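Example: Glycine--tRNA ligase beta subunit.
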Amino acid sequence: MAANSDPRANFLLEVGTEELPAAFVSSAISQWQQRISPDLAVQGLTPTSIQVFGTPRRLALLITGLEIHPPDQIEEIKGPSVTAAYKDGEPTKALLGFLKSKGATLEEITVKQTEKGEFIYLTQTKSAKPTGELLQAWVLDWISKLEGKRLMRWGDGDFRFSRPIRWLVSLWQEQVLPISIPNGSGVINSSNSSYGHRVLHPGPVNITQTKDYASILRAAFVEVEPPKRETLITAQIQAVAKSVKGTAEIPSDLLAEVVQLVEWPTAILGNFESEFLQLPPDVITTVMVTHQRYFPVYDQKQKLLPHFITISNGDPAAAETIRLGNERVIRARLADGKFFYDADLSQPLEAYLPKLETVTFQDELGSMAVKVERIKTIAREIAVNLGLDDTTTQHIQRTAHLCKADLVTQMVGEFPELQGRMGEIYAQAGGESDLVAKGIVEHYLPQGAGDALPTTMTGQVVAIADKLDTIVSIFGLGRIPTGSSDPFALRRAANGIINIIWNAKLSLNLSQLLSQTITSFTQAFPKATQAKTLTTQLQDFFGQRFRSLLLDEQQIDYDLVNAVLGEADPSLIQRGLGDVVDVLVRAKFLQTIRHDGRMTQIYETVNRAARLARQGDLSTDCLDVKAVIKTNTLKQPIEKEFYQALTQQLPHIQTAQETRNYALLLAALTALAPTVSRFFDGPESVLVMDEDLEVRQNRLNLLGLVRNAAAGLGDFGAIVKQ
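Written out as structure tokens, the predicted fold is:
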């Protein structure tokens, strides 16, 4: 009896389509994985497993061990308050009406105490629909709610999907579950008939058992499980590369894309003429990987071999024909590349600069040539800000001068992915210094989260200048990023600036640099946003970027981020912009002393001192104990001890703040803590808010100095006790 009390079955859904984009397949799989389990859980359904499959011609879902009948839903319904439900001990119309609407009797109600008093409650058991009926409704929703780029209509209907749907398999308890997708004058009805590989098994395939779905299609030359296709592809690539004594490069992004482009993969070795190896390797691999989805092959010295590997979705018996076709394609692409390369090298990189006048940076901001001049100005200011020597400054200026020149070369015109890299190559060929050449390619970095950062001073400075010009210019036009809309990737640019400064530990005053850049911009574009408004907007913007990077990339606790940047204190953001590296140093230090327990040694006393210090008027930047403490007013021994402790420790604290030696600052605060604690709670403790105003002010100033000392690390009031 127990075995039959919870009968379960399997459900299979397959949506057959025309060839889907690889990105949509991956996205759809992810969307179903995130959605389907919660939908089932709402009805109390607990399947044994949920598997989502995808190929270029199908999306599929297999749910095993799914209850045929969902458990009944127990619903607790809140009714009127007890005072409204009864009058003189008799049920009122309000209560009787409530019961009538729910088909219940007085015997079924209970009374429960809530925050708003006692209320009538009714517990009812609601029978759920059979799982099959639920699935019929869910399936239409699961299919129609899939999101993707450029969804299309077909026929005369309004149904939208990534590509036209050609068949629908829907099996529940091994029987066809009727599902229809209406589409104008047509309709797509479910059946148990799928289709195999378009070339190797073009006819229909009957799915007789849901649990055998993957093996049935495998027999029809369709591997529906993406992880298994990936394993097959990787193994085949490695074997083919080994056959020519090489090693294949398998970029993860390319592999993920190719997995979703084939149903029955076959790795095929192709060849090209060795003369093309005279091209820069980046040109060859860009043609292979980005444009043709081929995998490059290297020798033991990591030099490119005149081979490539392509993954075919066709008939393995036609491998030779497929190879020849792919070889013709890559030969033509590499021949174009060689022509562009030779033509570009016919003149030095600098000769391309006049053509930048014909390239628009942004309609209201002029040409790329004008932008280059702005980059040079900002780069010069950064060099001054950093105190760089004349030689380094000259290299930076030369890098800024040439950084965009390759945009108008023929090679970059054909292969935009090579911008920067071709600039580096052409600069080296033209006799520019290695620092200038490297700086040209590095000034585009980083291009995304986790990307490499510039390693040369030329690359770092020009990258910051380029990104800062873009941010200030676009903000100046009033195009501030909102929500998820950031068409100019300004958040990424700001993150790049901060990460470059952090990584290289540049002593750059970003606040001063922003001010200089804003002034130059508003002078050049009088109709732009006013400088004062622009300054406030950009400070807020960079403050948000600081916060995001500390929380998400550096994994700093949220309250420690608030301690460093403040929750609503512009002065802390300004401090951070004035010393960008210090923001990260302090945040990491606070995280460290929280984890190792050292924060507990000072937390209570610093916080208590800071709270009381707000009652006084001591400037938050004062650390001069002799200037603000009247020694003749110190009457109690603990006050005098407090004063002496500050006299001893504040010089260390000032040194620590000036040198960013926060271990020294912590040591000084730790040394102060016992005295401050006894000032509050020891046998000799005193009343801070003394009736004598002079005594009170003195004591508040003592505490204010402790607060100011700790503020070198951050606002301890924002830190949550743990």
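The first helix runs from residue 22 to 42.
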